[in-house]
Design goal:
The structure is a single chain. This protein is mainly beta. It has a single domain, classed as Lipocalin, CATH 2.40.128.280. The protein contains two helices and ten strands. It has an eight-stranded antiparallel barrel. Strands 2-3 form a two-stranded antiparallel ribbon. The longest helix is centred in the first third of the chain and has 10 residues. It is globular and about 40 Å long. The termini are far apart.
């Protein structure tokens, strides 16, 4: 019964807009993230039994294998969900990394200006290396803040 309650709580959990979006940029981190990336894994405690809806788009495990492109000189890019059995999704994005180490992203519709999009997502950037980095979100799981870790690997 406890698992059912936890699953119910998490199945309706959606990544909410967060407010720490200071705009002083961390250009060094942005340049390190420039290029084409693939999400190699998504992990959080209980991920084998608990479902999390990422970015209001799909189950977090649908993001494994998703492709992302980050252009650092204009803070634009795109992302696409490509996993079989998951909703097909592709969209342009705007993004930046602020001096607090937060990755701030807006998912755009075709031909939509970022300033018209009111909702966005803020994740912490971690473990930036030449060929990998992590984006970490915090979600509420039964009253406990839990990290959801998106592990990115540089695409060939």
């Amino acid at each position: 019964m406890k698992k059912v309650i936890i699953l119910s709580i998490l199945s309706i959990a959606v990544f909410a807009c967060k407010t720490n979006t200071a705009t002083k940029l961390d250009n060094k981190t942005e340049v390190a993230m420039k290029g084409n990336w693939v999400v190699a894994s998504v992990y959080y405690p209980g991920s084998e039994v608990i479902k999390v809806n990422s970015f209001g788009l799909a189950d977090s495990q649908c993001f494994v294998g998703s492709t992302w492109k980050f252009v650092s000189n204009n803070n634009k890019g795109d992302m696409a969900l490509t996993k079989m059995g998951c909703p097909a999704f592709s969209s342009p994005i705007t993004w930046f990394v602020n001096k607090d180490g937060n990755f701030v992203m807006k998912v755009l519709n075709a031909d939509e200006k970022a300033k018209r999009v009111r909702e966005g997502y803020v994740l912490r950037v971690a473990n930036v290396a030449e060929n990998s980095f992590q984006l970490v979100d915090k979600i509420d799981v039964g009253g406990t803040m839990t990290d959801v870790v998106y592990q990115f690997q540089r695409a060939n």
